[in-house]
């Protein structure tokens, strides 16, 4: 019995679910800032909180559930018209969302005492105090009282209230438990509403041999005493209401017992005749789909949602592959006899080639996610930045359906955050300065994505003051990056902002840091084999353009040989290849520098770095690679040629080895390691610095 | 035959438990369920056990717990409303109490 569920970590699955819920609710909150009266948005926020609370309690995230309960109650009051939706409420709820994220993260890493020690509990209490102040509920009443107070004034009609209480009979949809609804939580919520007597109904449970173990055949009768309204009770079942049986009767002293509900499934008397085969065909399949693979995928830390039709295409290709494989097996067992056999083999070979190519394309598409998921995160960032800086900032997004590799999307988040922070902090002016310059008081930040061939273009544009070229020049001269008065093209001058340690902010704020960052942004983008360009017009704003390859799975590489091993250098980083003559090799011993168009470029002898133990070839080559404006030469024995490289990640044993970013399998079955350009360039620069220091 | 449960008996492994119980009924007739190690359980287990009781009654087999419900199971039964107004048979089955007259 221990086999089931192994490898599925429900806590990890909940974390993924909670992150989605929090993101969705946060988007609704951000929308609410523009439309405080929107009933739909208020309901969305309430439902998000309600689900998070319920799921959190189900998975043992009690601190999260308890905290979220207060936010849910606050929005319950808002949707019932007992408290207004205000900017203050949205702001404090956004802080509460951050706190919930922290609670999701911390749960399981520390005990309750640890939480308190970490100050998280105290932070939560401070937020709750603000929350209650924001809805004019300074007493912070306990859950049941809150709900009663909230419901006491709701509709006021006879149908909505029963002073004595209610007799509640309910039966959940058959798939409720499989879909994650925990009936125990619903019962607890009913108990929150008043004094409740809960009696389970087991009469509809079929015999074991016809039971679908994940279906729910249980029913309950609850006698609830107290002033709870019908609406408050119905709210408990808000997410299963459509498919469930629920009967509510006001409780009076003489009220007879509510007649039992008809069983949602078959009664025991009917069950022997019904076999599993008689059941609706979709039920087991649905259950499997919703609880098996789907949950397993969510349980892993790295998960990706794939539209079902893409999986269908993949299955079609796999089906074809299986057919071809059986043709091949048939041919192999019968022997390849004569021209007919050879023809059949060639046909199979062509078929496999076609399928391999289609499978590669299909599988690649599985990893693609819309960039909207990435852009969504930045709405909150811009909202917070606007509050911090006191500026009015409008975020406009475009091309959100553009798709990009999931890994690329994740690795782009930090650089884009930095670029947005820079735009908001340095680029956009305060309202009074904008008005004085004849601009609208509100600044505009545009985030756009579009696909162009094998690349995605992401632009971050602001309509701020633009980059101050004089200040860039002064700073670069002061830092010794350029000579005083050195003539530079405009593009070259702007590229200086990507130099390490460069910052033009006269006033350092906590937004844009201390001048570290833009060089890191550039390096991160280049590690993704992308590029970053900047254009800027004084007084009209700046545009940062990132060009990112669609996927990291396949690259164009330069295949080289060092000793007896073959290696791939990403072609995008290769600037040129030159010959290292024997004389130059001997002359540069101990110095390892070559003169390249009046510039000294350090180089690394890969043969020595990799300790191949072989003698150098007579005609070695230097492959000059560059990243971030820094160059280094790599001495190789032979350049074999360009190579379409399918990147395989290194095993966990080899993953930490610097100098290699992955591996690929060559046509002859051999393995070639892929060189990590960023690491090697850094290594070359370090070597140069050591040599300089040594004089 | 004794069918032991592990620490966890929830909807995630309900199908496996169901299959084990059915196999035990088919092969050995009478079945005892050892739920003493259960730490984490949900209503799917209670439902499975109830279904096994129905199955045993219909097929003339014996089905019982080898020991009264442990603390985790009893808490679950109470929270789910199974012990609010239990029949004597339910009390006897879950709590090992002798059936009243």
UniProtKB/TrEMBL annotation, chain A:
Residues 139-152, 263-277 have a biased composition (Low complexity). Residues 139-160, 259-283 are annotated as: Disordered. The keyword Disulfide bond does not apply. Pfam families: CheW, H-kinase_dim, HATPase_c, Hpt. Residues 554-686 form the CheW-like domain. GO terms for molecular function: protein histidine kinase activity. Residues 312-552 form the Histidine kinase domain. Residues 3-107 form the HPt domain. It is an enzyme of class 2 (transferase). Its EC number is 2.7.13.3. The keyword Transmembrane does not apply. Residues 342-412 form the R3H domain. PANTHER family: CHEMOTAXIS PROTEIN CHEA, SENSOR HISTIDINE KINASE CHEA. Involved in the transmission of sensory signals from the chemoreceptors to the flagellar motors. CheA is autophosphorylated; it can transfer its phosphate group to either CheB or CheY. This is Chemotaxis protein CheA. It comes from Novosphingobium clariflavum. The lineage of its organism: Bacteria, Pseudomonadati, Pseudomonadota, Alphaproteobacteria, Sphingomonadales.
TrEMBL record, chain B:
This is STAS domain-containing protein. Residues 5-81 form the MlaB-like STAS domain. The lineage of its organism: Bacteria, Pseudomonadati, Pseudomonadota, Alphaproteobacteria, Sphingomonadales. It comes from Novosphingobium clariflavum.
């Amino acid at each position: 019995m221990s086999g089931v569920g192994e490898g599925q970590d429900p806590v990890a699955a909940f974390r993924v679910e909670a992150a989605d819920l929090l993101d969705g609710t946060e988007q609704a909150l951000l929308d609410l800032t523009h439309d405080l009266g929107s009933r739909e948005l208020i309901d969305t926020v309430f439902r998000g909180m309600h689900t998070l609370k319920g799921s959190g309690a189900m998975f043992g995230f009690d601190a999260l559930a308890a905290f979220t309960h207060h936010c849910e109650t606050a929005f319950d009051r808002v949707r019932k018209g007992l408290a207004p939706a205000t900017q203050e409420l949205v702001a404090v709820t956004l802080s509460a969302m951050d706190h919930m994220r922290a609670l999701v993260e911390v749960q399981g890493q520390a005990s309750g005492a640890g939480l308190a020690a970490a100050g998280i509990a105290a932070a939560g209490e401070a937020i709750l105090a603000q929350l209650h102040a924001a809805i004019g509920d300074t007493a912070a009443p306990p859950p049941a009282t809150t709900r009663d107070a909230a419901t006491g004034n709701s509709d006021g009609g006879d149908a909505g209230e029963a002073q004595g209480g209610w007799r509640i009979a309910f039966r959940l949809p058959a798939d409720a438990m499989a879909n994650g609804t925990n009936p125990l939580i619903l019962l607890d919520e009913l108990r929150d509403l008043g004094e409740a007597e809960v009696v389970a109904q087991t009469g509809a449970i079929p015999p074991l041999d016809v039971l679908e173990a994940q279906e729910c055949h249980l029913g309950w009768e609850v006698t609830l005493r107290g002033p709870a309204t019908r609406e408050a009770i119905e709210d408990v079942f808000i997410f299963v209401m459509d498919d469930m049986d629920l009967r509510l009767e006001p409780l009076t002293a003489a009220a007879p017992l509510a007649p039992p509900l008809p069983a949602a499934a078959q009664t025991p008397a009917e069950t022997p005749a019904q076999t599993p085969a008689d059941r609706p065909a979709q039920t087991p399949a649905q259950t499997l789909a919703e609880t098996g693979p789907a949950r397993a995928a969510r349980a892993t830390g790295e998960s990706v949602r794939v539209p079902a039709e893409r999986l269908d295409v993949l299955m079609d290709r796999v089906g074809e592959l299986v057919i071809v494989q059986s043709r091949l097996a048939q041919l192999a067992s019968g022997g390849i006899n004569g021209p007919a056999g050879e023809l059949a083999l060639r046909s199979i070979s062509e078929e496999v080639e076609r399928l391999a190519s289609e499978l590669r394309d299909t599988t690649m598409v599985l990893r693609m996610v819309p960039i909207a998921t990435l852009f969504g995160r930045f709405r909150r960032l811009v909202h917070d930045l606007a509050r911090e800086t006191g500026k009015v900032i409008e975020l406009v997004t475009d091309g959100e359906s553009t798709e990009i590799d999931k890994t690329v999307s994740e690795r782009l988040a930090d650089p884009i955050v930095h670029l947005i922070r820079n735009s908001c902090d340095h680029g956009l002016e305060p309202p009074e300065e904008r008005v004085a310059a004849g601009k609208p008081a509100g600044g505009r930040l545009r985030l756009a994505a579009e696909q162009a061939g094998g690349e995605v273009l992401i632009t971050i544009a602001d309509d701020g003051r633009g980059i101050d070229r004089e200040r860039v020049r002064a700073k670069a001269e002061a830092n010794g990056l350029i000579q005083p008065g050195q003539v530079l093209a405009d593009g070259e001058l702007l590229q200086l902002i990507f130099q390490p340690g460069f910052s033009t902010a006269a006033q350092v704020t906590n937004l844009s840091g201390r001048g570290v960052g833009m060089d890191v942004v550039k390096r991160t983008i280049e590690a993704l084999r992308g590029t970053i360009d900047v254009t800027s017009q004084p007084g009209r704003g700046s545009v940062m353009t990132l060009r990112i390859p669609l996927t990291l799975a396949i690259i164009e590489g330069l295949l080289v040989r060092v000793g007896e091993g073959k290696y791939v250098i990403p072609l995008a980083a290769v600037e040129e290849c030159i010959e290292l003559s024997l004389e130059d090799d001997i002359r540069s011993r101990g110095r390892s520098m070559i003169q390249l168009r009046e510039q000294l470029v350090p180089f690394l002898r890969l043969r020595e770095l990799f300790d191949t133990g072989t003698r150098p070839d007579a005609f070695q080559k230097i492959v000059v690679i560059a990243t971030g404006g820094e160059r280094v030469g790599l001495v190789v024995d032979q350049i074999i040629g360009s190579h379409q490289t399918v990147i395989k990640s290194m095993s966990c044993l080899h993953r930490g080895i610097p100098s290699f970013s992955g591996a690929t399998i060559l046509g002859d079955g051999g393995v070639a390691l892929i060189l990590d350009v960023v690491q090697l360039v850094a290594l070359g620069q370090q070597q140069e610095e050591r040599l300089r220091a040594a004089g | 035959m004794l069918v032991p449960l592990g620490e966890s008996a929830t909807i995630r492994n309900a199908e496996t438990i169901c299959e084990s119980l059915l196999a035990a009924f088919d092969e050995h007739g009478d079945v005892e369920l050892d739920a003493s190690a259960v730490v984490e359980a949900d209503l799917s287990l209670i439902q499975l056990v109830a279904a096994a009781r129905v199955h045993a009654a219909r097929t003339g087999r014996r089905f019982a717990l080898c020991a009264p419900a442990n603390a985790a199971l009893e808490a679950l039964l109470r929270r789910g409303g199974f012990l609010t107004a239990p029949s004597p048979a339910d009390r006897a089955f879950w709590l090992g109490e002798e059936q009243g007259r």
